[in-house]
UniProtKB/TrEMBL annotation, chain A:
Protein origin, superkingdom: Bacteria
Name listed for the protein in its UniProt record: Multi-component regulatory system-11
Cited InterPro entries: DUF742
UniProtKB/TrEMBL annotation, chain B:
Protein name, UniProt field: ATP-binding protein
Family: Belongs to the GPN-loop GTPase family.
UniProt GO MF annotations: ATP binding; GTP binding; hydrolase activity
Keyword presence, Transport: no
Keyword Transmembrane part of the UniProt annotation: no
């Protein structure tokens, strides 16, 4: 499912939107098999054993980009979306695939409706003051 | 298969991530505020609305388009290696409420930026956070050339509940923005403590 190749010239004007429709990268899926509803600040980390994603024929170039980006520094879903210039929904599906195939794992932020620990909040205040 | 890269450096730190929302009308200085404290130039992330999209999207006026892009600017503050705060500017248009729902899920709190020349622009945001009991404070952005009003007058004009803090601020000024953010976290702590007390008794 390489994103380049045929069709480029047909879709080149602005009316057509991006050269490749964003959800083409997800093969039209808007949810991933893993059914992860990933928060914008969920942290994606590449698994140490995910050595050579490019050798995996099931992965798209965008999958590989995510694995590489999250290898040395963890990245949030929002950061991946900005970095790869992909809509959040697309990043969610791709990350879901990678979780499924165990290339990455995801650390979720504090669950909604549950404020983080008071000590963390104090750390935030102190950290902000020290900036 | 050869696992040639198994001797890589230690795995990356997996920080605790938190977010604070920055809401307010168009042009009130949300991205400026984010940029004043962010360690990175504010980044932009986008989501697409499609025709088959959510029931709440009102795309009147843009019927000719199949997709609409909702953009959000965000910044990052690394407080510690393992503690990172993200600031998200909410999309200005009210038709993107569903994005707000998603953004506010798990948010620590919110800043509603107000411009005294167009106070009505922030009513929707105040209403939104009040209804969902998300801790927020109002930051009155001091624009050059805008008349300055006493805090009490602004408070009255906004019909703000007594417990909601209101601060005068300058979205361009790092120190001022830091103070606003500290205010949000303090308010969130106070609100959480109060809620615990209510539940406890």
């Amino acid at each position: 499912m390489s994103a380049d190749g045929q069709g480029r010239s047909h879709w080149f004007d602005d009316e057509a939107g991006p050269v490749v429709r964003p959800y083409a990268m997800t093969r039209g899926r808007t949810t991933s098999a893993a059914q992860h509803r990933l928060d914008l600040i969920a942290v994606v980390v590449t698994e140490p054993h995910a050595d050579d994603p490019e050798a995996d024929p099931t992965l798209s170039p965008e999958h590989v980009d995510i694995v590489e980006l999250c290898r040395d520094t963890s990245q949030t879903v929002a950061e991946l979306s900005a970095e790869l210039d992909l809509p959040i929904g697309v990043v969610r599906v791709l990350v879901g695939d990678l979780v499924e195939s165990e290339f990455v794992h995801v650390n979720r932020p504090v669950p909604p409706a549950e404020l983080p620990d008071e000590s963390i909040l104090r750390d935030v205040i102190n950290g902000l003051r020290a900036l | 298969m050869i696992f040639g890269r198994s001797e890589r450096g230690k795995p990356p730190v997996e920080p605790v991530t938190l977010k604070i929302l920055v809401a307010g009308g168009f042009g009130v200085g949300k991205t400026t505020l984010v940029g004043a404290v962010s360690e990175i130039r504010p980044l932009r992330t986008e989501e697409l609305l499609t025709e088959a999209g959510r029931p709440v999207d009102d795309v009147s006026g843009v019927e000719a388009k199949n997709t609409t892009t909702v953009a959000m600017d965000f910044g990052r503050i690394t407080l510690r290696e393992d503690l990172v705060l993200y600031l998200f500017g909410t999309p200005g248009q009210e038709r993107f409420w569903f994005m707000w729902d998603e953004l506010s899920e798990g948010a620590l709190g919110a800043v509603v930026l107000a411009d005294t020349r167009r106070l009505e622009d922030c009513f929707a945001a105040i209403d939104y956070f009040e209804r969902r009991a998300i801790p927020f404070l109002v930051g009155v952005n001091r624009f050059d050339g805008a008349a300055r009003y006493p805090a009490d007058d602004v408070r009255r004009a906004l019909d703000l509940d007594d417990h909601v803090p209101l601060l005068m601020c300058d979205a361009r000024d790092r120190e001022s923005v830091k103070e606003v953010l500290v205010g949000v976290v303090q308010h969130a702590m106070a609100q959480a403590a109060q809620r615990r007390q209510t539940v406890g008794t």
